[in-house]
Every structure is written in structure tokens, then in C-alpha cells.
Amino acid sequence: MKVKRRKTLRRRKITFAFLLIIIFFFYVFVFVPFFGCMPQVRNDIEYCEEDRIKEYLDRGLVAMYINSTHVYIGWRLLEDDPESISFNIYRDTEESVPIKLNTDAINLTTDFIDQPPLNETSIRYWISPVVNNLELAPSKDTNILNNIGEQYISIDLNGNYTFQKVGIADLDGDGSYDFVIKQSNYNIDPFSPPFGHWESSQDTYKIEAYLSNGTFLWRRDLGWDIEQGIWYSPYVVYDFNGDEKAEIAIKTGTGDHRDFTGRVQTGPEYLSIWDGMFGNEITRINWPSRMREIYNFNSRNQLGVAFLDGCHPSIVAARGTYGTMKLEAYSFDNNNLINLWKWNSNQECFFKYSGQGAHYMHSADVDSDGYDEVILGSCVINENGKGLWSTGLSHPDHCYVGDIDPGHPGLEIYYGIEGVIHPIPKYDNGICLVDAATGKVLWGIKENAYHIHSQGLVSDIDRSYPGMECYSGEDKYPKRWLHSANGTLIANEEIFDIGLRPKAVYWDADLQRELLYEERIFDYETDYTHLTAVQGYQVAWADILGDWREEIIVSVEGELRIYTTTIPAQDRRVCLMQDPIYRLDVAHLSMGYAQVPTTSYCLDNTDVTLSLYPETGDTFYPFILIIIGIISVILVIISVGNSIFWYSKRKNDSS
Fold it and tell me: CA 20 to 30 Å from 289, out of 175, 206, 614, 647?
């Protein structure tokens, strides 16, 4: 009798445990997806019908020695310039009166090559726009900014150290780009040993500001509550209140809340706004709260800028990449942060948004409604704080947004999917291009991908293929892919391998970007080398000086260097920083894993593409959840029926 009771009791325990498991699966895969889609916290956005507020820019005049006898001068063409605008250029020295260097007004390019008299000192240049045969007010003047034989401008730092990040914005309102750096160049990843690389911080980050002429403004210490890693310390520099002087939005803490291991897992966290010129805190508000998740997941933070109402910049603060993801939007008005909405991936249906985060944030008007959306990796959040779409492809190590394929209407997003569990291969779409408005996959690889890693690259490097080329590679395998914008495989690892994080810049006079790899700037098509020694740690790539070609900002011990081209241009184009996607990509370079900015148009888009891949549609992620949900319901019924059966049998046996 006792044996029989023990067996009965064991059956009850097993049945009860089984029932609990089934109820859990029922809750997760049935109740939450179909009945548990919770409303997000939102305030109504006051949409703006005016044009997007643009930052004031001067002509960005730059003068560089090409050699001992020739000087290159370049300047900006602005989007508000009339098509007929032309320019006169002037030179002045201590030994001579100002002279005009050009005979006819310059209207084909925005650069000029001068051969100044030898042995003259204190050479200055400036330009004057000419409209309808009338010469307008002159620009600010500039000296020659480099030494003979050097291809860069050097700004001395306020000490002998390196820096990790740079925010590029106008701090004093003069129309020139200034710099806010984070030093030193030391990075801890939250992923803990034995598989990760986390270690206790040995020092604290310092934030420093410099004007474009090298003037040191201020330094602030972030303190011990901000660990020394990219994911603990996001910041962006932008003019958030429209006064033509940029502020700093930054994640901050107070005090020292390190635990016995050195991790910061408690204590207050803030989104702070600092004054750009003086570094003082203007206001702060609580950072998106920690989740009930592991330290690695909780420690992933990002910051961005988005024009959610169509004309004013908003601040978007994010937490989470691999699990729960939170995003909160704020406007900065009258020296106060005003919450617009709060979004949580767990409150979206089907769990399609959780674990979709990337290592970089984009903001772009993906659906052409006039308002920016926020691209958080494999998902997009609408300007009103609602999920717009998610591919369900999981975590991408890199993603790029822009007019990648001019033959496809609207914008596209390119993904290299790392995923969360690396040993499990992804057969479909480990590398893919999707429609930015819908998330619909336009083309993707049809082979195993295990861990697509690092920043990859999206840039127009090959004039033979319309649009921007897309490059990705595996982490643990020598596998590389270079695709055209329409999915044509151009090259693999057997003929083209430039690592996992190459960069590219517009450097020569054509409309293709040049590759930047292992200190060398070179053409993809011809392998012609333009520059052999880009020294230092590369921090940013952006059109911040001169004409539309791009500069490279690097960190050298005790120095901020700006590499800029001296190759004569063949045409003139509007400053790339006035393109909305490009400008916000550059703003986001001060946080996350930096990747080269892209544009909302392809510079060389004279041809249209004919896609070689059929549109594959969205992933089957929600259908998998539905199937699991149905199975869960069936198992619940079986479990309940099993319990009733054993209860009836026990009752009959006892009688």
C-alpha cells in the first residue's frame, strides 16, 4: 500500500511540474503574443509641418601644402547656394597687399591650387561668393594648416594621451565644427569571462572640448559609476535647442557604486545635458531603468538624435541589445528634458522586437512620411514610439541605412547578422538587404552563416555596379562576401579580403569611395594607392572641411589629427553634412561601434538596377511562435486530461 501511495505521489509531482512548464509556455507563446501586447508609454507628438532645422555652416575653408611650392584650397558648397554661384579667392601675406588669384570666377569646383611666392610668411586665404555678378561678403580667412610633407592638420590635446571617441558639432556658433573627445582610448566589454573580456576599470573616462582652431575649453570626469567601456558611456553632441550652439547629451552617474567585483549594477543613472562651451550640467533625468537580466544585457547603452516631429532634433536613449530593449525619447526645451514616449520590446506582440539590437543606432525617415524613425538593429521604431517592423533575424553586428540600391524605391538597410548563439548556423539571410519602409527582405545569401562579425562596410567602391557595394565576413571562418546593391556576388575571400572592419572615404575626384585599410587609402578597382600612412587610431570619417570629399579623424598620443585630401576636384557638390542621414550617422560616431556614414542618395546613381534575387519576404519568426503556441495549447489539454485520468483512477482504486 505504501509503495502504491509513493508511486501515486510521484505521478502527482511529475504531473504538477509538467503542468507548470506547460502553463509557462502557454503564457509566453500564446497569452503574451495574442493577448499581452501592452500599450507603450506615450505623449502625443506635436508634428511640425515646417522644414527640418539645419545647422549653420560657414564655408569650411581649408588650405594645405601639397608640396613646397603649391597649396591646395578647398571650401564648402551649401544647399542654399543658388546654382549660378561662383567664387573669387584671395591671398594675403605680411609682405604684400591682398590679391585676387583667379581671373574668372570659379564655378566648376569649390577648390583651387595656388603657387604662392617663395619665402613669404603668414599666408592667408579667403573666398568671396559671387551671385549675379555681385561679390558678396568674404568668408573667414585661413592660414595654411599643415606642414610640408604632412597630409593632416594637427590639434594638440591638453595632455599626452589618446582618445576613444569624438563628437563633431559647432560649440560656439561660428559655423565651424568643433570636437568633444572621450579619453583615454580604453574599452571594456560587458561580456564576462571565460568567454568574454570584461575586467574591472582601472581609471575613469574624461570628456574634453576643443574648438576647431585647437583651443582647449574644458574637461569633466565621468567618475567611477561609468565603467571604462563604450557601452557604459554613450554621448552625442548636437544643437538640441536651436540656438546654433551644440550641447552634449551623455549618460552619467554619481558616486562610486562598484560592487566587490568592480561592476556597477546599482546606483542612479542619468541622461544629462551639458553646455557645449563650458561643460556644466544644464539638466538631467533618469536613464532607462535596469532590467531583470544578466549584467551583460543590462550594460548595453546607446544614445542618438532623431527628428521625430519632422523639424526639431529629439534625443533617444536606449538600453539593451540581446534581450529586452528599451528606448526613450526626449525633447530639450527651456533647459528641460521632456519625455515624448517610452518603448519596451517586451510590450510588443510576438516578442519579435526583443534581442534585435545592433552595436550602432541609425535615425532616418524610412517610410517617407517626413518624420524620422529609429533603427535599432533588426527592428525599427516609429516616430510615435510604436514598433514599425521587425525582421526577427536577431542581433546584427552591423547594419547600414541609405539609398543603397537606387533601382529600388526608397531607402534600404543592409544587415550582417551575428545572432546570439554563434554555433547554430543561420541558413537564410545571414547577410541581406531589406526594404527600409517594411523590413521585407529584398535579397539574402542562401548558405550557412555562423557569426557575421564587426562593422562590415557599405560604400560605392565599384563603378561597374550601380549603387553601394556591401561587404561582410565571418569571425571564426575565413569567409568573405562582397555583393552589389542588387545582390550580385562580386567577390569572395579567394580574391578579396580586407578583414572585418574596413572603412572607406571619398578621397579622389571620382564618385566612388576609396578603401581605407591598414593605414592605406586605395582604389578598389585599380588598387591605386593615394596615401600610405594614415597613422593612429581611426575615430571618425566625415565631410567636416573643404569641399564634399571626406576627412579622417585619428587619435595619436597627445594629438587629434585630421587627414584631408589635396587632390583637385572635377566637379562640385553640396557638403555631405547637409544630408539628413549622413549628418545623424556622423553625430552617432561618438557612441557604439563606429562605422562610416551613408547618405540618403547614391552619389553615382545614373543607372538603375535589376535585382537578380527574388524578394523573399519577411521571416517566419511569428509563424514559429504561432506553431509553438498551438503545441502549447495541445500539451496543456493533454496535461489536464492526464491529471483528470490519474485522479479518476486513484478514486476508483480507493473505492
Answer: 206
Spatial distance between the Cα atoms of 567 and 373, rounded to a whole number of angstroms: 37
CA angle in degrees (0–180, nearest 5) for 453-458-460: 150
Q: Are the beta carbons of 441 and 449 closer than 8 angstroms?
A: no
Cell reading at 228 = 571604462
For the CA atoms of 222, 248, 213, 532, what is the dihedral angle to 10 degrees? 80
CB of 85 within 8 A of CB of 136? no
C-beta of residue 553 within 8 angstroms of C-beta of residue 539:
yes
User: From its phi and psi, is residue 189 left (phi > 0), alpha (psi between -120 and 50) or beta?
Assistant: beta
Alpha carbon distance 581, 597 (integer Å): 8
- pLDDT score of 636: 53
Q: What is the Cα–Cα distance from 149 to 67, expressed in whole angstroms?
A: 6
Range of lowest pLDDT (9-18, 319-328, 477-486, 583-592) = 9-18
Q: H or E segment at 433?
A: strand 426-435
Cell (9 digits) for 501: 572592419
The radius of gyration of the chain from alpha carbons, rounded to an integer in Å, stands at: 28
At which residue does the C-alpha cell 579622417 appear?
552
Residues 551-561, mean pLDDT to the nearest whole number = 98
Query: 472: which residues sit within 8 A by CB, 6+ positions away?
Result: 398, 416, 431, 452, 456, 480, 481
Q: Are 343 and 327 in contact (CB under 8 A)?
A: yes
Task: Give the residue, 195 or 482, on which the prediction is more confident.
Answer: 482
Strand order of the sheet with strand 165-169? 165-169, 178-183, 206-210, 216-221
> What are the angstrom distances between the C-alpha of 403 and each of 106, 250, 466?
31, 30, 11
Question: Mean pLDDT score of the chain, rounded to an integer?
Answer: 90
Closest CA to 113 of 547, 439, 424: 547
Distances (CA, A) of 94 to 143, 462, 530: 12, 47, 34
- Which pTM does this prediction carry? 0.90
Inter-residue contact 455 to 593 (CB < 8 Å): yes
CB-based contact 163:555 (threshold 8 Å): yes
Edge-to-edge strand list for the sheet holding 62-65: 62-65, 71-74, 111-114
- Residue 461, sorted as left (phi over 0), alpha (psi -120 to 50) or beta, turns out to be alpha
2-26 helix and 621-654 helix, angle to the nearest 10 degrees: 160
The tens digit of pLDDT for each residue in 49-70 reads: 899 999 999 999 999 999 999 9
